[in-house]
User: What shape does this take?
Amino acid sequence: MSDGNPAKTTPYTVPIGPIHPALKEPVMFTFRMNGEQIEKADFAPGQTHRGIEWMGMRRNPIQIVHLTDRICGICGVSHSLAFARAVEQIMEIDVPERADYIRAIIAEFERIQSHLLWAGMAAHELGFDTLLHLTWRVREQAMDTIELLTGNRVNYGIIQIGGVRRDITPDQHPAIHECLDYYRDLQGKLLRIFLEDATIQMRCRDCGILTRDDALRLCTVGPTARASGVNMDVRVDFPYAAYGDLDIEPILPDRYLGETRGDVFDRIVVRLLEVEQSAGIIRQCLDVMPAGDILWETKIPKILAAFKKAHGEAVGRHEAPRGEVLHYVRMDGKEHPTAWKVKASSYSNLMSWIPMLEGEQIADIPIIVASIDPCLSCTDRVAVVRGGRRSIMTKEELHRLSVEKTRRLMR
Amino acid sequence: MLECGDAMANLPMIPELLKQLFRQPATNTFPAKYLPPSVTGFLKMVSRGEAAIHPPVATPPEFRGKITYEPEGCIGCSLCVKICPAHAIELVNETKTIRIYVSQCIFCSQCTDMCPKGSLKMSDEFLLADEDRYSDNLIVE
Ligand code: SF4
Ligand code: SF4
Assistant: This one.
């Protein structure tokens, strides 16, 4: 903008964020616009770093499990499950089979409520608020069932290292089946409203396209990747909990629509079909769930003592509603872990915003941004507060810093 | 892209909306059936017995609400202090009992699992909003 009146020069720059009504999470976007069209998109996360890992380093894994419940406001079990699996691998704990099934059941209920929450949000971003209210009303059924099974609606507190803290009793089965039947009856209607509605078609078809190649190149995960035709799902590719015993097939849009375009519409289709799939998985679990213990060790002091004998490192993964979540843990014979690293699913998906947004219209920004179901508070793991200067860290620099930190910790 | 004529035919939300007109609202109105001019004023009236609260949705049987503590059985072992992830519990040395700061508690129920004497329980009380985080209602001892 060197010559003339800057207001008249094109392209011009539109900042959106870090806090903006069109964004549900804090992130800073900068768009270079040519008229209504986005020429270039850039974004800066890092606005909502909370230092959870730092808190974790001062706590033992039983306490950290409750912290992990709070990494995300929607994924109340995904992070806890991934973390617990990492610690269990280090300690070579065999989780009782029944606990594995309960974990899968809760994780699938979480997927149902998360996808419905997202679908409502997507409708809202399109300005279709009646659909938002309908979707969020039907989401309540899953929330109520989760509350019945775990005690609370949002922070379930169901995972324990080596199992789960609450059993699913026979008298809860009718309520679970009632919820699943509710979604079976509803699924057709929801799909019809979302997929046949002219407004949604017009706004979402061929909008925000992510090609399969881009999806692979940018390492996207979860429904975002599947909507672009990438056949991946941690539950199938690397089974854990009860998923190895179950019959699951990753949901790809061509199964329903006959083709894959990788647009916002496909992302809606994948998530809505996954609601149905999750209900099916829960049914399977209830049918084949074996009786037995739900904890590897019921006495908490004994678990604490076992942490002091744990040496090693491990990675726990889980297919969260937004895609693969990964927790790295290292234990060195102390109650507290030496290292704990969280990689939320959105971290892998953020970069896909760029190819989706470039070339689209300014009015499509909210729905495209929302279409990967971003969760920035889960993603932000770093904030540099010293100096207040801005700079970009290269991979080499990050590697050097991490080596330095490891040396410091080993001292 | 659809033609405008198609667009009008494809609005499956409309029948749903019309049905909703004759349905009960899904939301439970709480604490009052109709929004009072001032919620705090209304709650004061409730405490004076001049108005009644419109009941909240019932909590499930195993709900984790405000913590309750029975000092009689407590042996002051401080296991609960050690396990609390939120550092919400402190040991009172003189009496060998504990004090719980509810404003800090995250309702995880880990201490109740840990307590060897069963002195700690989670109640179903959840109306805990307060202007003072150290008010009597938010300190359990
Ligand atoms: S319920 Fe959890 S946070 Fe609250 S006092 Fe007990 S251990 Fe601490
Ligand atoms: S764990 Fe139970 S017995 Fe021990 S100090 Fe806490 S309340 Fe008292």
